[in-house]
Amino acid sequence: MKSLHHLSQEFLSSLGVVDWGYSEEPVPMSYENYRSWIERDHQGTLQYLADERMKLRQDLRLIYPSFKSAFVFLFSYQDTKKWMLENQHHDVAAYSLGFGGEDYHYVLRSRLEMIFNKLQEEFPLLEKFVAIDAQPVLDRDLAYRAGLGWFGKNSMLIHQKEGSYFIIGSLLLNQSFEIPQAQLDVDHCGNCIACIEACPTQAIEPESRTIIANKCLATFTIEVFKEVQAPLGFEKSRGEIFGCDICQDVCPWNRKPLLKTIGQLQLVEKFQFLKNWFYEWSKEDLLRYIGELSNRGLKRELQGTPFDRPGRIGWLKNLKALLTISKKNNF
Ligand code: B12
Ligand code: SF4
Ligand code: SF4
Fold first, then answer.
1. Smallest Cα–Cα separation from 67: which of 76, 77, 58, 78?
2. Alpha-helical segments (H) within 146-215
3. Which of 77, 201, 213, 299 is the most exposed place for a label (fewest CB within 10 A)?
4. Which atom of ligand 1 is nearest to the CA of 210?
């Protein structure tokens, strides 16, 4: 990892950063790919990707007019992933428990604020805009421009040394720095088709390296808040009830980084109960428990975690879908 005067490697590692990059380019290189994805209606139920915010993704200066540069950070959750693979736990996506069980939008925003404060000690006039997932920014494209990886056929941004189990968070800044422009990475997928073959719902469109959102189990289990049928092929899954890591778990570029990682699940005190929910209780018990809570009751329990998102109806849908296939599949 590179270091910049106030941003020592030690400091960044303590925040879970495995690499970072720098870019002064405000315009994404793949906007056209995104636009044609929307034209083909591949956003499905994710309508927020196709509304008036769509045009804001064309240029970082539309959301942050003072933009001069971006620092892009990769926050790893490899240790949680390794723990899950060692224990054959596939119920929930690794990112969801990878930051203490807390919603990464809050945790990583505050880590990005800490990084910014360090930079500001050196550059007092520095101002920022924090981009982490929810803002109209093509996060992967920005990380690509910062030289942090390439787009896999599974559409993940993959880093040659760190694989793809990380969250991308960026600081858009009002000053530029004397940092050489990044070298863009090239494709390293080659002839591999492991993710395409492993995706149970055939959600991957390899030619454009994008996902057909409505077929993806991450959409079904995280973003669909009402009773609907699981996408075709769900029965071939590993029993995912929140997010899906299948197309990353089979990727050869994730093998090496996992070898150097020690597997661990570290939940903050108030979210220790998630361990019971997902790994101690049966799915029938979890279904019964959630079923007996009110909408508000469930929200109270899950507030501050990523699991708050689907709501009670969404959770009942996920668990019922799983239970219809679990006997057959021996989960
Ligand atoms: C909507 C969304 C989803 C949707 C749709 C996913 C999708 N692939 O489009 C759903 C709910 C399915 C989803 C699932 C997941 N997501 Co999500 N999601 C997003 C979000 C909010 C927007 C993505 C988007 O704009 N999609 C539209 C498509 C068209 O754009 P894109 O995904 O960026 O894809 C680009 C590339 O394909 C590129 N491209 C393709 N070929 C080439 C070639 C070249 C040369 C270039 C330059 C570009 C290029 O063009 C596209 C347009 O820019 C981003 C955060 C953000 N603000 O960007 C997170 C984000 C993509 N998600 C993330 C994660 C972690 C996940 C999951 C792993 C969670 C899980 N375990 O369940 C899965 C992974 C599924 C998958 N294989 O993609 C991370 C990915 C980190 C990484 N290493 O890439 C992001 C970046 C959040 C973050 N800030 O870290 N997600
Ligand atoms: S996250 Fe799962 S369902 Fe979505 S594309 Fe990857 S393997 Fe397919
Ligand atoms: S599994 Fe193979 S094709 Fe898919 S992203 Fe990884 S290297 Fe690329």
1. 58
2. 194-198
3. 299
4. 37
Question: How far is ligand 3, taken at its centre, from the CA of residue 251, in Å?
Answer: 5
Ligand 3 centre distance from Cα of residue 203 (Å): 14
Of all helices (H) and strands (E), which one includes residue 270? none
Measured between alpha carbons, how far is residue 307 from residues 45, 48, 185, 222 in Å? 19, 20, 34, 8
Percent of the chain with pLDDT over 70: 98
pLDDT in tens, 287-308: 999 999 999 999 999 999 999 9
| Nearest CA, atom 6, ligand 2 | 247
**Which tokens sit at 17?**
């950063």
pTM reported for the whole predicted model: 0.98
Q: Which pLDDT belongs to residue 5? A: 66
User: How many Cβ atoms from other residues are within 10 Å of residue 124's Cβ?
Assistant: 6
What pLDDT, in 10s, does the model give residues 82-129? 999 999 999 999 999 999 999 999 999 999 999 999 999 999 999 999
Active-site residue list:
133
Per-residue CA distances from 155 to 34, 49, 133, 216 (Å) = 12, 16, 15, 12
